[in-house]
Structures are given as structure tokens and as C-alpha cells.
Amino acid sequence: MSAFLAVLVTVLVVLHGVPWWVLVVATVLAAAAAYLYTRMPWVEPRWRSSVLIQATGRLDYGNFLALEKELRPLAEQVRQMGIMREVDRNLHTDLPPERMLDRTKAEPVQDSGQVRIDFEDADPRRAERVGLEIADVYVRQHNADEQGKLREERVILSILDRPPDAVLTWPLTRLIVPAAAALGLLVAGAILLALLYLDDTLKSAEDVQRHLQVPLLGSVPRYRVPRSKQATSSPAPSTEGRKVYQEASS
């Protein structure tokens, strides 16, 4: 953030004298375009629901390396087609198991003995239901398989408290709009800087002295006709003036 402010101050200092409304218009247009993009019908929102699974058993007596070694295979076992098919049978969703598998992520949570399951969907309520059902199906299958092992070798899984509500991961309007506005400001500033760099016209007395390398003795001011005089028509020449003109022409 500090680097962006430094660049912004530099651009404003260099562009001193340039119409400031150009930068404002570019910033507003970029922010408006980004906002409209997030509201377009083809921009599908993505909601993420996360569920935490706690592992207990012989993991409690291992060190950190053993814990990480055990949790990673547990996380990888979540992404199985059989689990997705059972979830689809239980919830009767309109999502194919293949797509459900693509939207599911599972990874161990370091230093906690937990596995986090993330599921993303365009519907926040469905994301919560499917994520929780995936965790429930996996926990039941895993614990059933562990019953055939010795007690000291079992790793029992349990779902923690009900997961929080799904969170929106895309599009993040509160981040996209300010970023687009900043980008529009920087792009407009860069274009104006390039135009100023390529512009070789003389605009002031200092420019004349710098290019000619001679002192400036004087200048002729530019006369601007007031608009009120421009709007009024020129008066008709008087009789006396017409006579003088005819004598000069003859």
C-alpha cells in the first residue's frame, strides 16, 4: 500500500498542470467497469464451505513429523469417487460425482491434528450441505475400517462443531473494484506521462530559453477577444468612413 501511494504521489507531481479530471474519469470508469463485470450473469459466484475433522488415537503420542505423515494420507483419502457417489445418493443433488470431486479439496492443518475439507459451489446453502455430507460419509467409512485394527493402532476421526456459513471466494467486489480503480489511475497516468515526454512544443518562456540557450528579452502577449464582442456583429461603416475609403481607392 505504501509503495502504491508513493507511485501515486510521484505521478501527481510530474503531471502537475495536466487536467486532473482525466485521471478522475479514468479511475471512475475502471472502477465502474469492474463493478459491472462482477454483476454480469456469466460471472458465476463461488462459495466455499469448510469442515474440520479431528483425528485422535495413536497420533496423540507421535511427534510432529509422524503427525504430518499420518494426516496427509487421511486428507488424500477424502477425494474418492465412491464417497462422492454416496453423497449424491444421500442428498440427491444435480451435481455429477465427477464435478463434485473437482470442487472438493482436503488438506491437513498443521500443528492441530485436523483435516480441513473445502467444497465450492455457486449456491452457498448447497456448498454447506455437500461439504458437511462429504465429511460425514468419509468419517463413517474410515471409522468403520478402523474397527478391525488393534485399539492402540486406531485413528478415529470426528467432525468438529457445525461448520460456519459458506464464504464468497469469487467475485470479491470489495477487492476487485479498488484494484481496478488503482490500475485505471496508473494506466491513465502512464499514458499522460508518455504524451508529455513525446510532446516537444514550446509552452512557456522557460521552454524557449532552454531550447534556444539565449536570454529572453520580451514577449508579445496573446490578445483574446471577449466572447461578448465575438457574439455581436461589427457595426456598419459610417458615411465619413465610406467617403475616405472611396477617395483612397480612386
CATH fold-level topology of the largest domain: Alpha-Beta Plaits
The ordered H/E elements are HHEHHHEEHEEHHHH
Q: Mean of the pLDDT scores?
A: 80
Shape: elongated
Level-2 CATH architecture of the largest domain: 2-Layer Sandwich
Cα radius of gyration in angstroms: 37 Å
User: Major sheet: size, sense and barrel closure?
Assistant: 5 strands, antiparallel
Per DSSP, the total helix count is 10
Class by helix and strand content?
A: alpha+beta
Residues in helices, as a percent range: 40-55%
CATH H-level superfamily title of the largest domain? EIF_2_alpha
Number of domains: 2
Terminal CA distance reads 80 Å
* CATH level-1 class of the largest domain: Alpha Beta
Q: What percent of residues are in strands?
A: 5-15%
Q: Please provide the count of β strands.
A: 5
**Segments where pLDDT lies below 50 for 5+ residues?**
none
How would you sum up this structure, described in words?
The protein is an alpha+beta fold and 250 residues long. It has 2 domains: 2-42 and 172-194, no CATH class; 46-170, Alpha-Beta Plaits (2-Layer Sandwich). 55% of the residues lie in helices and 14% in strands. The protein is built from 10 helices and 5 strands. It has helices at 2-14, 20-38, 64-78, 81-91, 97-102, 124-146, 173-198, 205-212, 227-231, 239-249; strands at 46-57, 104-109, 114-121, 155-159, 167-170. Strands 1, 2, 3, 4 and 5 form a 5-stranded antiparallel β-sheet that branches. Helix 2 runs antiparallel to helix 7 and helix 4 (81-91) crosses helix 6 (124-146). The longest helix is centred in the last third of the chain and has 26 residues, at 173-198.
